[in-house]
Amino acid sequence: RKRRGNGEGSVSYHSGKALWRAVISLRTNDGRLKRHEVYARTKGEALGKLAELQRRQHEGTLTDPSRMTVAALLDAWEKSAGDSVAPTTIASYKRIAKKHVRPVIGAAKVTAIRPLHIEQVLSQMKDAGKAGSTRKHAYIVMNRAFAQAVAWGIISRNPCDAVRSPRVESKEFTVLNEA
User: Fold this and answer.
1) How many whole angstroms separate alpha carbon 41 and alpha carbon 23?
2) Number of helices (H) and strands (E), helices first, in the chain?
3) What whole-number distance in Å separates Cα of residue 135 and Cα of residue 115?
4) Are 139 and 99 in contact (CB under 8 A)?
5) Considering only CA atoms, which of 168, 127, 120 is closest in space to residue 142?
6) Phi, psi of 14 (to 5 degrees)
């Protein structure tokens, strides 16, 4: 029998339970091996569920929602948004997230994020002298990532819904005349 590749998964029959089991093993960020199991009544169902686990692994959403960090959410969201957004927009999202969001709330659990944490990111950016448009872009990145987390069922409510989007101050320009 050949050994299966990493992340490929397997399907086996458990006579004691009279169910088929699909298993996929992954390495976590800290290097530990995490096993995800699903059960089905038929082998075909189990293979379908295994394919779903592999798809979620490829998208980066195959994590325990209660343990998912904001940084992991941002990674998964950036991968999933890549199909519907221009590459330059994704690059902009990544830059904003890396520079402003991850240092402040990246290590926090997604389920623990409250509107106060969003306000904290925005206020630290303001204290650092960041422009209103930069703060607004950071808000957009957080709002869209948490909205996707709601759609994926990781959280039940978007914490950005309770936070006002930062205002962008319009600057007055002096127009030059002929002289």
Assistant:
1) 15
2) 6, 3
3) 15
4) no
5) 120
6) -110, 105
Q: Residue 52 burial by CB count (10 A; 0-12/13-18/19+): exposed, middle or buried?
A: middle
Task: Determine phi and psi for 173, rounding to 5 degrees.
Answer: -105, 145
> What pLDDT is recorded for position 28?
64
Tens-place pLDDT, residues 14-73 = 777 788 888 888 766 566 777 888 888 888 998 898 888 888 777 766 666 667 889 989
| List of residues 6+ apart from 83 with CB closer than 8 A | none
Please determine, for residue 128, whether its predicted confidence score (pLDDT) is greater than 90. yes
CB neighbourhood size of 53 (10 A): 20
Rounded to a whole number of angstroms, the distance between the first and last alpha carbons of the chain is 86
Single pTM value for the model: 0.63
Q: How far is CA 47 from CA 6, 42, 114, in A?
A: 17, 9, 38
Q: What is the pLDDT of residue 1?
A: 58
Nearest to 125 by CA among 109, 110, 141: 141
Cross-strand partners of 34:
26
